[in-house]
Design brief:
single chain, about 500 residues, mainly alpha, 3-stranded antiparallel sheet, globular
């Protein structure tokens, strides 16, 4: 570490500057937890994370003191951490106090309920036909469902830089929609199997969509309540959400396009902004893609090390039973045998190391995934502005531009959906992996019941977190998100070229 270095509250700084020979202190992990909390704008969680950072700083300081002359520069930097942490704790505590009741937070202006804005839209018929599409269902032009929210609420979220809340609303609506689509597809399949009752399908489908309406209408309020729990000054604001169902011939999903004229000169700047936005989205997707590759590599290593642990156990258990001529081996005997068996002794620390590394990769993906969601929302706003500009122009070239914008929006919607799927996989993995940590802790226990752990707990936990169909980070999802983002970039460049050719 450089002499006189000033420490920073981030894992990257500590990893880069700490003494390379210093044993693991846990400080990097604690700093990462703090970073994630800050990125999620979860101030109470960030404040709590700083308490852990202080403990880890103290632990690192203690390790360095054992070789004070060797780690003198690191010790000097660690001594500066308490002051930096105290300053951040004061800032966070003040912010939290301002946002709690009676904390002196500035009252927001009186709410003026704004117009409805579509924040999510799906073609149920199209989605159902992806699952089941017999000939008699092909003429079903289906139903477009959409969730609306008053724009003043969206303005508040934007003002507070909370791009996660509307993204979660979209994710919740999409999850509910998937269940409805599956149910309708099952109804169609049953009718097809019986060979009768085709005339009952519209009514049955409508019932399912009515249930979807009831579920989706609750989503905005539930998410808004969580926002208000952190931003109490908006407690008097009211959500005016709506769920619309449009029957008949369907348009492009999520486009909301009207027949407009070609772009006037000012549209070139907007088109350039769209391309810049797509480049930002693509760059962030690339970051997530790279992290997913690294995470999958770590997951595979962890899975192999865990399997090596079980092989070691089975080998030692088999030899012990054979030697003793017994059906079972005492826990204390098995513990001493395994702790003297080199492959087992070597694999357990590797598992611990890979678990920690995985946790770091998952945290990085979570942070960048939220940044990606924010970038998408900003990009869609630019596309909306471009379309609005088109409506003010009168040109014979409108058709070409409309076709290109339609294709671009459809691709961007696909890319956003794939990114949401990727982020969803991270959340699932994040939820499942603590089971691995619990398993590793159990294996390190002096009185571990290895027979129970390996025969009963091990198969369930490993399959849940690493071997099942929905286990792990999901590198394939990240690759698909990367591919769709790259395609969108090509369409964006094509749109820009067309705009430039029309105004030159």
């Amino acid at each position: 570490m450089k002499k006189g270095a000033t420490p920073e509250l981030n894992q990257k700084w500590w990893s880069k500057n700490k003494a390379k020979t210093l044993k693991k202190t846990g400080l990097g992990d604690a700093l990462k937890s703090y970073e994630v909390a800050i990125d999620l704008m979860d101030d109470p969680r960030a404040l709590k994370s700083l308490s852990d950072v202080k403990k880890k700083v103290a632990g690192a300081f203690g390790l360095c003191k054992k070789k004070e002359k060797f780690y003198s520069d690191t010790i000097a930097a660690l001594k500066k951490y308490p002051g930096i942490i105290q300053k951040e704790e004061t800032r966070l505590a003040k912010k939290i106090k301002e946002l709690t009741k009676g904390g002196g937070a500035a009252a927001p202006p009186k709410q003026k309920v704004g117009k409805d804005v579509v924040i999510w839209k799906r073609d149920i018929a199209s989605e159902v036909k992806k699952i089941f599409s017999p000939d008699w269902l092909k003429d079903w032009k289906g139903t477009i469902v959409q969730l609306k929210l008053n724009d003043d609420i969206l303005d508040v979220l934007e003002k507070e830089e909370d791009y996660a809340t509307p993204a979660f609303m979209v994710e919740d609506a999409q999850d509910a929609c998937k269940k409805t689509v599956t149910a309708i597809a099952k109804i169609a399949a049953n009718i097809h199997k019986k060979g009768s009752g085709h005339d009952t399908f519209p009514k049955l489908a409508k019932q399912e969509i009515k249930s979807l309406e009831a579920e989706i209408k609750k989503i905005p309020q539930a998410r808004w309540n969580k926002f208000v729990a952190r931003k109490k000054q908006y407690k008097d604001y009211k959500i005016k959400s709506g769920f619309d169902v449009a029957l008949g011939t369907l348009g492009t999903i999520g486009s909301g396009l009207a027949i407009a004229a070609a772009v006037p000169t000012g549209g070139a700047t907007l088109a350039l902004g769209i391309v810049g936005g797509i480049r930002s989205v693509t760059a962030l997707t690339q970051t997530c893609y790279d992290l997913a590759i690294e995470a999958e590599k770590v997951e595979k290593g962890l899975k192999k090390d865990l399997e090596d642990l079980k092989k070691s156990y089975l080998k030692v258990d088999g030899e012990a039973k054979k030697s003793a001529g017994a059906k079972e081996v005492a826990k204390s005997t098995m513990s001493s045998l395994l702790n003297a068996y080199p492959p087992f002794v070597a694999s357990l620390p590797k598992c611990d190391k890979n678990y920690t590394l995985w946790d770091n990769k998952a945290a990085g993906l979570e942070v960048n995934g939220r940044k990606l969601t924010k970038a998408f929302i900003q990009l869609f706003k630019k596309v909306d502005a471009f379309e609005k500009e088109m409506k003010t122009a009168k040109s014979k070239e409108a058709g070409k531009l409309l076709d290109k914008v339609k294709k671009l929006r459809v691709q961007l919607t696909k890319s956003f959906d794939k990114a949401a799927t990727m982020n969803g996989r991270v959340k699932t993995a994040d939820k499942n992996m603590p089971a691995i940590k619990k398993l590793l802790d159990a294996l390190k226990d002096k009185n571990a019941d290895y027979a129970k752990i390996f025969d009963k707990v091990f198969p369930v936990v490993v399959n849940l977190a690493l071997a099942g169909a929905n286990a792990g980070i999901g590198f394939t999802d990240a690759k698909t998100a990367m591919d769709t983002a790259s395609t969108a970039l090509g369409l964006g460049n094509d749109l820009l070229s067309e705009v430039k050719s029309q105004i030159e």
